[in-house]
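Reviewers asked in the last cycle whether our approach scales beyond single polypeptides. To address this, we selected a multi-component target totalling 764 residues and predicted its structure end to end. The input consisted of the following lines:
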Amino acid sequence: MQLALSAEDQKFREEMRTFFTTEVSEDIRRAVIEGRELSKEQIVESQQTLNKAGLAVPHWPTEWGGQDWSDLQRHIWNEEMQRAGVPTPLAFNASMIGPVIAQFGSQEIKERFLPKTANLDIWWSQGFSEPDAGSDLASLRTTAVKDGDDWVVNGQKTWTTLGQHGDWIFTLVRTDPDVKKQAGISMLLIDMTSPGLTVRPIELIDGGHEVNEVWFEDVRVPADNMVGELNSGWTIAKFLLGNERVGVAPVGTTKRVLARAKSLAGERASEPLLAARIAELENDLLALELTALRVVAHSADGEPHPASSVLKLRGTELQQAVSELMVDLAGPASIASGAGADSALEEWTHHTTPTYLNLRKASIYGGSNEIQRQIIARTILGL
Amino acid sequence: MDFTYDDEQNALRDAVRGLLTKAYGDFEQRRQTTKADPGFSEKTWTQMAEMGLLGLPFSEDDGGVGAGPVEIAIVCQELGRVVAPEPYVTAVVLAGGLVQACGSAEQRSELLGSLASAERLLAFAHDEPGSRWAPTASAVTATDDGGSWSLSGTKEPVVQGARAETLVVSARLPDGGTGLFVVDGEAATRSAYPTYDGGRVAKVVLDATPATPLGEPGRDLTDSIATILDLGRIMVGNQAIGAMEVALAQTTSYLKSRKQFGVPLSTFQALTFRAADMYVSLELATSLVQWATMVVESGDAVAVRDAAARAGLQVSRAGRHVGQEAIQLHGGIGMTAEYAVGSYMSVLTMLEHLLGDGSHHLGGLAERVTDHEDLDPLAIA
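The resulting structure, written as structure tokens, was:
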């Protein structure tokens, strides 16, 4: 048992902190810290700055731009990035399809996609959920039927986050309707400019346009755009969702927002009720961060530790709780979400309620928190 | 940053677990032991002494082993796992720890050597009617009559206060501040009674009772008491973690074996989800307790105070959650004294109220909440 970081890891941490706070655009970081929405250009710029320094996809294989880091160093990289207000690399690229292609793709697909994926030259969207396939993902009904050298895709995907920016979409499709539902699924990479593919916005309760429906009407996809073997899509999806759960607890970001809440509260932070609420949140976050460190220390060969479900579950609950605290701090000003530059209210207050409403998503995506409870009950407790 | 035990620590855990499984592996053994005075097993206590556990925190010069907080924590976790009634934290960590921290060389060698060998039981007589976990004393006062000290007032509840040969008593000093005194158990008027968790506590009445100052006479030892209480809180947290682990294991095992409506209870998601939430509470509390144990090694009293409060708060929340749900998920059987799980909740409740409950710790943390921007566990060297 040893509390302190090794000298090497301490140095690594300082290097990360220095890079993130000096090399990434101050404007972008301030926008993140102040809770404003980022433009596509800002997200791309930030990821390209990271990628140039080898910091966009450190968890990929080294031949495709990854770093030979320990799990603890990856954790430090992630935490310091969030702490500094650097937008984390686009999850669809860096955490989802990149590792999948590196693991399951042919050499041709790797060469074609991985460098551009790391550099966000291609913006990926995720084509998993459907209107009738949410947590029960294997029930998906979008079909792909072979026609000559092409697959012809028909169906509908939904909850496609930032699909309005997407260049390509990695899509789970049903390629065999006659077998057990998990056994008839494959993964296709689909160019979003293909004829027959339509992206339609879904307006959310925060007033924003973050997610979309994606419709496929006789969309033709070349056969060599399949990742992995025919009908092996469920294995790939489980691999991808397992990765998604790791690092899905945004401890660094939540800590930063809580520290900001405390600073914005000023003298009110010493009022007993508020002080107790903040102190309890800080304690819960500390427990979560330490649990993340324990999971990092014990995960072997990149396999997610089963307790990573705890991180997703509790991490999103705390993220939501801190966003709720921000609304309460803003008080009546929290109503004024549409206020413009001439508003007499403090600017931070405008964003509190939309953020709070938006973050209800956190306990739903990435395997809903009920799915995480099921994983804990089954995998860890054997129930 | 490393949360794993080394080989020697693993061996210690296995040895302690072996000893305690023999003593209390069958819950009925604990039940029988706690029915009769003194409420714990003298035999097990002696075996713990033979294994070196009772001298674990003390220096070798004083008849101890000179082990660190991680080793003490391992013992506490194992005691918690079988809800052992032996007064390890109160006698060794608190009373012994105070003798080690404040006693003269002579007092240390006399008291700690015999504590470590199980020849002498120490009790820490600190709580007073109306007190709430402060490191100070007020109801018991010390009088200095030309270098001859005596104490008057009442201490209650004192864990194993009637069984202990020697009491370490906190008392208000003539010039203010709180001092510590060694009092012969026989010299005080003691009445013992059992507690809901199977333990024994006593009312200790002092009436111009002769007492020997621990260490230099007349010195205010409030800070030393506070530091030892903080260490005790972290060790109690370790004990609670052990108890919670087993309470959860008992619950999951029961959900798998108990059938209602013709199917095992584990087929009902309403129940398995609650077990999953118990696991989450336990994991988070474990992380904080392990971290706090490592903070003790840093030796910084301010950092230890903070860590003790943080671990105390998390263990309070988790202990109540796990204890309450363990009984609820068992149903009626969990209410019975014959069945183990209810005793786990009793012990968790006792442990939380021994050295400070969740509200107590949260109050302290809330007062200090504006002292820092954020918390950085990796910054502590």
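The mean pLDDT of chain B is 97. We regard this as preliminary and will revisit it once experimental data from Aim 1 are available.
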